[in-house]
Amino acid sequence: MSISESYPPAFRRVINDEDRLATAEAEPVLVQGKDINIPVIDMERLDKEILREACKEWGIFRLENHGVPLALTSRLQEISESLLSLPFENKRDLFAAVNSPLSYFWGTPALNRSGDALKRGAQASNVTMLEGFNVPLSSLSKLPTSTSCDDDAQEPKLESFRVLMEEYGRHITRIVVSLFEAIAQTLNLELSGNRRSEFLSESTGLIRVYRYPRSSYQAAGEALGMEVHTDSSVISILKEDESGGLEIMKGEEWFCVKPVANTLIVNLGDMMQVISDDEYKSVTHRVKKKNRKTERHSVCYFVFPKRDCVIKSSNYKPFTYSEFEAQVQADVQSLGTKIGLPRFNPNSPLFL
């Protein structure tokens, strides 16, 4: 099987067109952001002042000594790449099993609550060259032991994937709870009673495994793998391969965040910005592939407030996460893109 057979048909057409252009024209020079060193947080010796500065000035930091075994992340990457390398039709069928909590998506990072790709409005740009698996951690135990996929040989891979995801999820949940409690302390945020579990609901935790094909050129000649966005989460935790491509906006400039072995990248999402009353920022970021000849693989964990948790802030009208999620999805479907927090900020021209 050729590697192109593992890609969705829409990807194959784009790649074939680019390959033909590459034979007739010089390969475009990609303008990348400048390299930058983001703050580093040592999980074993967590310094609250460094953490506060990282959240306030950056909204993103690198986490070292996090306690996730290297053997686990290596094996998870290996099995994820193996599943994503299956023929497109096999992946689609494998993850379409009846009552399976997992889903396979492609062409857009915008998903509904079930993990299915959202149909985007007419103003959306061309197909986004990424695919992946959506894995709600709380539902992994419900994964069927048999699937509707014709190739029964793939079922052991899926079972291995489930076991590894459960183990990785336990580690990441431990990390995110510790980080959130430390961040709350830097904000003097009261977390008595059930407030912590309302702001950071472990049951909402999900993991998305991404694969960016070997070519992700857009019409303008830029290799965008993930469009410019902020995360809707409280906190997101990224584990990426060595190919790099993550870029963040600081001030009015784009900067490259180089991958560092055996570290995780933590970024704050929109919900943390609101919880902090805008003291901490949801970082604007994108993925811009640097090498069109290689794929990029990453695993990202997202966690949210409880769906019915009312989030109050002096800068936004009160809302529940369910209301925020519904507005994001409505904007994606009608406008082709997420608007996010400005929809809830009375001082924004985009306020509804």
TrEMBL record:
Q: Does the keyword Transmembrane helix apply?
A: no
Domain Fe2OG dioxygenase, residue spans: 202-305
Keyword Glycoprotein attributed: no
Q: Which InterPro entries match?
A: DIOX_N, IPNS-like_FE2OG_OXY, Iron_ascorbate_oxido_reductase, Oxoglu/Fe-dep_dioxygenase_dom
**What terms describe the molecular function in GO for this protein?**
dioxygenase activity; metal ion binding
List keywords of the entry alphabetically. Answer: Dioxygenase, Iron, Metal-binding, Oxidoreductase
Q: Which family does it belong to?
A: Belongs to the iron/ascorbate-dependent oxidoreductase family.
This chain's protein is named Oxoglutarate/iron-dependent dioxygenase
